């Protein structure tokens, strides 16, 4: 493990990467959006390649899209010395990386993350995968890309809502690993944050954690703070009408408050930190409308969480600003209280 | 890399394995045949488990079967601390291992190979995968099982034809790595071979090769002797009527003669060895009826071989009895001659 992450103007970092490698062939995977807004920024810098375009959105992070990608890779007669270039957000990076890692038992791939979320989170750490039967990242592998090429220029292609979604993982990184940065972050409005600085900070924290525990046997689980209930909320809202669906970071923002509440109930953090978290997260994200009817379905979804052992639902919980515990067994009753607290 | 392979009475080796491990849950993957003939021999020795049965045969080594398996794993709420137990031939081992390696980004699995072919080949070395769009093992990963438990008792469940198919890989192991064993092997009729001895010998050779080069960057390619044209013949015959389909080893037997011919054409081996190979292989397998119309389709299939680089078709060719070269570029004209030689 020791993943190369470049934060630099994209044309330069692409040229630098390919100047040191010799590939037999290349394929670019994009979605409808990144084909239009991001691919034109890199097209001229890339070696000869084919382009595969999949439909945008988490609902297309499925085996059906993989079959389309594998079919195009086969048609282009990609051999084991070819490279896959993923340009897009977490869906494209996770799915394109998974397709590359499984095609002919694995070929090289590079990530060009274009959303804030994927720049600060998904593109670093080698977690690849797709959803299955509605369960998030239920199928996948751990494998590192040959390189991650990050350029904040792509953020201009994002809506404010998408930018805000990515910001949730930045908040999480500060809360679990850097109390000083959290103190600084929470005093600045979302609109006035310095993205280049925050991306570099988040990548540094994520790499530090992942390098110590690439396959999530222990420490890496702290990156799941906010994600046990957050994922469950996100999965549950997939079945809601279009107008009510949540972006990943929006669900994680909900999850951080719920899991912050459990951390405080267990006296792992004090009232002050939970109050600060609520103030900042509600000011940034508002409040998601969770109805009493949703509660048991959300709890049910936590049973498929990948951190579980047997029937135990295991959480990563805060121990303070900048500190996080993992493998904490939490009961359904505690979850029920945490969801009720959020709703109240 | 350092794969555990046990050749012992199966009930004992199962008990020994599980006495050292603690799993949250278990699932057994079998096919129609092994459910009937092999599963009863191990059922009582296993920890509590669910059983998933898929349809028998290479034509079911597909994403559709994987979706069935992943669905059952999900329904059984298997977590990351569960284990998958594959009982069957190469199809079950390759596909069940692949399903385990991808489920929640990878859970443990063990192989209980029940055919001669899988005992001497597929179960050792961590090559997992499924077919895609008719291409063999087009999707997959490299990952080692926690253990391989081999017991010759399962060979009693095989037809003579299946036993003969597995024997082809034994012949190959001798030809590429042990000239003395080849000399011994070729003087004994198929019906009088000592399977327990040959299984142990093949496993030893395969492990020796794979331990040196787990992901097939170099030396491991020698295991592909007979497989470039052999796979192409096998794939081509998939589209033939049921009565003409070939088992894997039957196609590899064809491939070894064709690739032996190319080895001799290039003066890498002498006439005597090729003559010996032909005599023994034809005596054991007879001759497959390849028609002039089949030739170009077979050559076309070699373009998807995983050892290729760019447009080059790369072979592993004999350098003598017990010695093999790899990454040898062979032209379509040479392949045409080799197929014609086999047909003549």
Automatic annotation (TrEMBL), chains A, B:
GO terms for cellular component: cytoplasm. CDD domains: DHQS. This is 3-dehydroquinate synthase. Residues 52-164 form the 3-dehydroquinate synthase N-terminal domain. The keyword Ligase does not apply. Its cofactor is Co(2+); NAD(+). It is an enzyme of class 4 (lyase). One of its GO terms (molecular function) is nucleotide binding. The keyword Nucleotide-binding applies. SUPFAM superfamilies: Dehydroquinate synthase-like. Residues 166-308 form the 3-dehydroquinate synthase C-terminal domain. Signal peptide: none annotated. Catalyzes the conversion of 3-deoxy-D-arabino-heptulosonate 7-phosphate (DAHP) to dehydroquinate (DHQ). It comes from the Bacteria. Keywords: Cobalt, Lyase, Metal-binding, NAD, Nucleotide-binding, Zinc.
């Amino acid at each position: 493990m020791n993943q190369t992450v470049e934060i630099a103007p994209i044309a330069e970092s692409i040229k630098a990467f390919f100047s040191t490698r010799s590939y037999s062939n290349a394929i670019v995977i994009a979605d409808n959006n990144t084909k239009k807004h991001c691919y034109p920024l890199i097209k001229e810098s890339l070696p000869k390649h084919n382009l595969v375009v999949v439909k945008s959105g988490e609902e297309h992070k499925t085996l059906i899209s993989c079959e389309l990608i594998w079919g195009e890779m086969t048609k282009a007669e990609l051999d084991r010395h070819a490279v896959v270039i993923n340009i897009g957000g977490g869906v494209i990076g996770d799915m394109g990386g998974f397709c590359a890692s499984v095609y002919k038992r694995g070929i090289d791939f590079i990530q060009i993350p274009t959303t804030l979320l994927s720049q600060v989170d998904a593109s670093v750490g080698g977690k690849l995968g797709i959803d299955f039967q509605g369960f998030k990242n239920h199928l996948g592998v751990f494998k590192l890309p040959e390189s991650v090429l990050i350029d904040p220029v792509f953020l201009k292609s994002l809506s404010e809502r998408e930018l805000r979604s990515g910001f949730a993982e930045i908040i999480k990184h500060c809360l679990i690993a850097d109390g000083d940065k959290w103190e600084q972050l929470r005093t600045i409005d979302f609109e006035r944050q310095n993205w280049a600085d925050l991306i570099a900070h988040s990548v540094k924290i994520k790499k530090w954690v992942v390098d110590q525990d690439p396959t999530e046997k222990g420490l890496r689980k702290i990156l799941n703070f906010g994600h046990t209930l957050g994922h469950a909320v996100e999965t549950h809202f997939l079945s809601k009408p279009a107008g009510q669906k949540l972006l990943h970071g929006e669900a994680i923002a909900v999850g951080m408050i719920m899991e912050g509440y459990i951390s405080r109930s267990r006296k792992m953090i004090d009232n002050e930190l939970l109050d600060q978290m609520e103030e900042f997260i509600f000011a940034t994200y508002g409040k998601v409308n969770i109805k009493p009817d949703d509660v048991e379905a959300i709890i049910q979804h936590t049973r498929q969480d990948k951190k579980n052992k047997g029937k135990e639902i295991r959480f990563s919980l805060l121990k303070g600003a900048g500190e996080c515990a993992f493998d904490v067994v939490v009961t359904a009753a505690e979850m029920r209280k945490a969801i009720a607290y959020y709703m109240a």
